[in-house]
Write a structure and sequence with these properties.
Layout (H helix, E strand, L loop, with lengths): L1 E2 L4 E6 L2 E8 L2 E6 L4 H17 L5 H4 L3 H15 L4 H7 L1 H7 L9 H13 L4 H20 L24 H10 L2 H13 L3 H5 L6 E2 L4 E4 L8 E4 L2 H12 L2 E3 L4 E3 L5 E2 L2 E2 L4 H11 L8 H12 L4 H8 L4 H7 L4 H16 L19
Antiparallel strand pairs: 1-2, 2-3, 3-4, 5-6, 6-7, 8-9, 10-11
Length: 363
């Protein structure tokens, strides 16, 4: 057993040489080759890393990107985040490309190459950014937890693809006709209120005050509650769902505590049924989130004040609400026709305007 000025030591185990050194009072051991000279070089290099602050625990250096991502998802689940399912999907291609890599070996040029390849495959900037941003967050979390020392630079793409989709009345009714019965109420509520999909699907009967005819959302994406009166079609939807809360199974009767359910079970996703209905209605490509824009636009057209409309839809800022209050081509056409009609109604007699004093007409 040989020491190197008390900063580390070299020892033999069988035919191999090993080195041992201390970091923050913890001993680390590594295989260092077949000769003492190799071991000395490795120990010297390791001590230089320690003194310069570049040391990475060999055990942590073996952590893969998949392990970092799993750690991140676990962190989100512990916080009660609702985005875990969506995030798991966003990270699928990241895992396919980098999952088996050691995290310490991921460098910025590799990410640039990945982004370039994804764009060549026709993926939208926003889609690419979601995966890259999630990976960046996983790395930053690992650094905070002292799993990693350094985080590479993660470039993101400019996003200029904000959707401007909304539903005209005929489109909404056509899709509604082709949806299964258990989804009709979900879509009617989304169309009227502009509430987010998760806000509607997570509603339980505790949120409904039948006496006051109110619906109370305890919390939302912006961490604030919401309360809306149940009037007209919305009240009809709630009454219909209340009547359908009892589900008769083979051996028992199940009473669902979810306002919207499928055979008593919470509806977690309905994209397949949604896309089928859109295709049958002849308007493929529509998204349920387009109802959020539609509700904002419909309320504005109906003369509802921005403050009241925001209290219903749950928009926290005026800028976001106005982004969703989209003007359609039909709005613009009607505005031009109204303007043209106004101009036609103006006096058309010919008027002669005198020249300003001190000026002469050109010959």
């Amino acid at each position: 057993m040989k020491g190197l000025r008390g900063q580390g030591r070299i020892f033999e185990r069988g035919e191999k040489h090993w080195i041992a050194y201390y970091v923050d009072g913890v001993e680390h051991r590594e295989s260092a080759g077949n000769t003492e000279a190799e071991a000395k070089r490795k120990l010297k290099a390791k001590l230089n890393e320690i003194h310069s602050g570049r040391f990475i625990d060999p055990r942590k250096a073996k952590i893969t990107v998949n392990e970092l991502l799993n750690n991140y998802l676990t962190h989100l689940k512990n916080k009660g985040a609702k985005s875990v399912t969506r995030l798991t999907s966003d990270l699928k291609r990241i895992r396919e490309n980098f999952g088996s890599y050691r995290a310490v070996n991921v460098k910025s040029p590799m990410m640039d190459q990945y982004i370039s390849e994804q764009r060549k495959q026709g993926r939208a900037n926003a889609t690419i950014n979601r995966g890259v941003s999630a990976l960046k967050t996983a790395f930053n979390l690992a650094r905070k937890q002292e799993i990693l020392k350094d985080v590479p630079f993660f470039a993101t793409l400019r996003e200029d693809n904000a959707r401007q989709g909304f539903f005209e009345k005929a489109e909404y009714e056509a899709i509604l006709d082709h949806l299964p019965d258990y989804l009709k109420g979900v879509v009617q509520m989304a169309h009227k209120t502009g509430w987010r999909r998760a806000e509607i699907l997570n509603l339980t009967w505790e949120a409904v005050d039948f006496q006051a005819k109110e619906l109370r959302l305890r919390t939302s994406k912006n961490k604030e509650g919401r309360c809306i009166p149940l009037q007209g079609e919305l009240w009809d939807v709630i009454e219909r769902q209340w009547e359908a809360r009892e589900v008769k199974l083979k051996d028992r009767t199940l009473i669902s505590h979810w306002v919207f359910h499928n055979n008593g079970q919470q509806i977690k996703s309905y994209y397949k049924a949604w896309h089928t209905a859109c295709n049958k209605a002849g308007i493929p490509g529509k998204l349920p989130h387009d109802f959020r824009r539609t509700a904002a636009r419909n309320m504005t057209r109906a003369g509802v004040t921005e403050t009241v409309a925001m209290s219903i839809t749950g928009h926290k800022t005026n800028s976001m609400f106005r982004r969703y209050n989209i003007t359609s081509q039909e709005d613009k056409k009607q505005a031009l026709l109204d303007t043209e009609e106004y101009v036609r109604g103006q006096p058309s007699e010919k008027r002669i305007y005198p020249l300003p004093t001190g000026t002469l007409p050109k010959k």
